[in-house]
Design brief:
The structure is a homodimer.
Chain A lengths: L13 H15 L11 H8 L3 H13 L3 E4 L3 E4 L9 H18 L4 H12 L5
Antiparallel strand pairs in A: 1-2
The first copy, chain A, binds a DNA duplex through α3.
Amino acid sequence: MLRALTLQDNGVPIYVQLRDQIAGAIGRGDLKAGARLPTMREVAVSLAVDLNTVQRAYAALEEDGLVTMVQGRGSFVADPAPPSRSRSAEIRTLAAKVAAQAQAAGVSLDELAEALRHLSGRAAP
Amino acid sequence: MLRALTLQDNGVPIYVQLRDQIAGAIGRGDLKAGARLPTMREVAVSLAVDLNTVQRAYAALEEDGLVTMVQGRGSFVADPAPPSRSRSAEIRTLAAKVAAQAQAAGVSLDELAEALRHLSGRAAP
DNA sequence: AAGATTGTATGATAAGATTCATACAATCTC
DNA sequence: GAGATTGTATGAATCTTATCATACAATCTT
């Protein structure tokens, strides 16, 4: 289940906030493959935001291969990971995304890398 | 010392990225109270960004009471040290979040950690 | 005092983001 | 098939971001 979307008045464009929050929910597993996303209109109304703005966020998610939209049905978490992409490219993409999160949180990449290695059970080299 | 500032093409306004990165550096202790910030012009030139944009980021930081600017002298970290609360806990939270994303993407934590190290190693000046 | 450095300011311009209003198209339910 | 739901699309208006060019003011160095 998708935790309630929230908007902050911190200069980050609304559609970026929506895109990142939903992408996070998908990556985190809160929204599993095939799960239905809230309707664009639902999001627009609940957040008092324009339908076009929500559409932009959803379109960006589709662009990233995270969701698929079907007219008349709704929007769903995409089933497969993009197959045409090489694995190393996927890793780089994830790393770039994560790097942005880390910077926003004021965490250096080295700090995060170390914390991840710690989580994985191995000690740093 | 302030770690190299970087910009990402992810829809977040440049001045917001600069503001958040510098605020993070201050909160993290990379920039201690009284320390001098890089010149607005230095930042503008090194990142190929307009002086006005950098000024906007700095003005936002001054608005938040994080830095003070003195004409002719430079910009400095404000004296009242910002409350850096439980930093290691923040890092662990971020790491857990990111770990979930990596797992959803089929990327091992070690692979991601290495990719992050790579990103951090070739940071632009 | 002179020159260089640094922050401050402005006005024009272009691109991006957001809203409003409205309409159409595909899908589902009855 | 009729009606409701949902995604798709457009065009205008407004505000925000970012750039460019230029200039001024305070401070420091010499």
